[in-house]
Structure to design on (295 residues):
């Protein structure tokens, strides 16, 4: 059996909390013993609310910050000790939530992509490669001369994807790539990503707080809650039979398609239409327990 493209083994990341006068005030376990693996050609969806540790996981995979403990392997090889090297960048590329911030406003689309090609000493015909990359993300060739401010959000994200693909990575880490986009644009970017994964033999880690996006896109889903994966399963069973309270909460905010699904969906109270935070959840639980104790 071949090694998974990406594997996390019991990865922990703690941050020191600074108190008054720079004194240490303990630590926060942003990522708390996370393990999962992604096979080649698969999409692994990592879901969880704000602050659950999603971006911290992404940054560790990118080699931007080392884990406190545990191991991260790409094609069966540990990446620890070779943080953020060129060879690592060649294998793993990232697409961020805010395409406006990730593109240099003073560079045209073409320049941004050429910088990526140069950084990796691209030896082929750069002009041809640029045209090829724009075509991959379904952008007209003359967009190479445009500046980011002349592009829509969706177009900017296409450029960010083209730039990530410039160096022919094996793995794309997509950190909320569509969260800043309108719903209709969101769907088209996901469609584009779906086409590319097959066409280019890619593998994706798709990070989102929105489980509904993963339904037809990911094979497996991991639900992250306060730095821990509380549920990891094939996407179909997560939707049909969520095992963890928190997954049910996330699902409660997913629009349902059929009456059957509506009937299956657990009835969980949202707080002001929002998914409760960890603290809310704790309060809800305590309330329920107190009620139970009183009856
Ligand atoms: N550099 C840092 N120093 C201290 N704490 C940090 C640092 N980076 C992240 N954290 C904390 O780690 C936890 C996880 O943050 P992270 O950004 O990974 O969450 P996230 O799931 O990506 O959230 P969001 O959906 O808002 O992007 C949070 O409690 C955050 O405050
Ligand atoms: Mg994040």
């Amino acid at each position: 059996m071949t090694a998974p493209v990406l594997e996390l083994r019991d990865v922990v990341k703690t941050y020191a909390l600074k108190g008054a006068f720079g004194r240490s005030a303990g630590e926060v376990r942003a990522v708390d013993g996370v393990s999962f693996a992604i096979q080649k050609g698969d999409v692994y969806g990592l879901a969880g609310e704000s602050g659950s540790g999603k971006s911290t996981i992404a940054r560790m995979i990118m080699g931007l910050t080392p884990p406190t403990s545990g191991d991260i392997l790409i094609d069966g090889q540990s990446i620890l000790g070779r943080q953020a090297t060129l060879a690592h960048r060649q294998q793993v590329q990232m697409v961020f939530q805010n395409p406006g911030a990730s593109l240099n406003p003073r560079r045209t689309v073409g320049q941004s992509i050429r910088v990526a090609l140069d950084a990796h000493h691209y030896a082929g015909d750069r002009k041809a490669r640029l045209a090829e990359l724009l075509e991959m993300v379904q952008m007209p060739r003359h967009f190479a001369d445009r500046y980011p401010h002349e592009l829509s959000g969706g177009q900017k994200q296409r450029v960010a994807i083209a730039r990530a693909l410039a160096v022919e990575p094996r793995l794309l880490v997509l950190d909320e790539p569509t969260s800043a986009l309108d719903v209709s644009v969101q769907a088209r970017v996901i469609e584009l990503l779906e086409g590319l994964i097959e066409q280019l033999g890619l593998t994706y880690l798709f990070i989102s707080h929105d489980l509904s996006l993963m339904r037809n896109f990911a094979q497996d889903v991991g639900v992250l809650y306060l730095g821990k994966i509380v549920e990891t399963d094939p996407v179909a069973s997560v939707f049909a039979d969520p095992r963890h309270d928190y997954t049910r909460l996330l699902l409660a905010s997913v629009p349902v398609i059929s009456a059957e699904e509506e009937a299956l969906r657990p009835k969980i109270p949202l707080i002001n239409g929002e998914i409760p935070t960890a603290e809310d959840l704790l309060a809800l639980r305590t309330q329920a327990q107190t009620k139970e104790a009183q009856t």
